[in-house]
Amino acid sequence: xxxxxxxxxxxxxxxxxxxxxxxxxxxxxxxxxxxxxxxxxxxxxxxxxxxxxxxxxxxxxxxxxxxxxxxxxxxxxxxxxxxxxxxxxxxxxxxxxxxxxxxxxxxxxxxxxxxxxxxxxxxxxxxxxxxxxxxxxxxxxxxxxxxxxxxxxxxxxxxxxxxxxxxxxxxxxxxxxxxxxxxxxxxxxxxxxxxxxxxxxxxxxxxxxxxxxxxxxxxxxxxxxxxxxxxxxxxxxxxxxxxx
Length: 244
Hints:
It is built from 9 helices and 5 strands; from the N terminus they run H-H-H-E-E-E-E-H-H-H-H-E-H-H. It has helices at 14-25, 29-34, 36-61, 137-149, 151-158, 161-167, 190-193, 206-209, 214-235; strands spanning 65-66, 93-99, 116-121, 127-132, 198-203. The N and C termini lie close together (9 Å).
């Protein structure tokens, strides 16, 4: 297996943030087409390069999680079919490292998705993290069952000092105000059963993002998050691997 070297990484530069600020201000097709070369050079190419390099790191500590420049990188185009906001482009760029036995989709429509790792670049809001975001009900039910069966194992991870120091609390996006049906009010896992997403994040500075060591920085965060991601994937019936 090849070791990550960083020699072939195309790093982000401050011009990446310049482009993203521009698309936020001029979110229309004419502006994007006039700046397409800038998008390719400052966003698309560095993101694809980053995915390749991080994938090599993942092989050493979470071989079941993979990255692909074609499958991991999210499109810059927004899906506006069901949105009141008809702006055609996202104002950030991102990529997703996913379980090799699961689909690469995320969100409520990702019927076969699993937990994985995420990177997000946006002016003033760059971060990395992982878990599973707003999965379909079938996946949420499996995770809730796992919380009932292995609450101690879950809390040992998310309440651990090292995890909390690096990632803080789990994100409360979409959290229910009441317990879901079928669970008693005094259930030992009451606090966690109201979650509909199971994700955690670490902020990244502009200096982190534009450093040639970004792949290594992400790998360090992702390695620390691996027990959390593996617990979720185990709940979903997705196994870990010792090697590729």
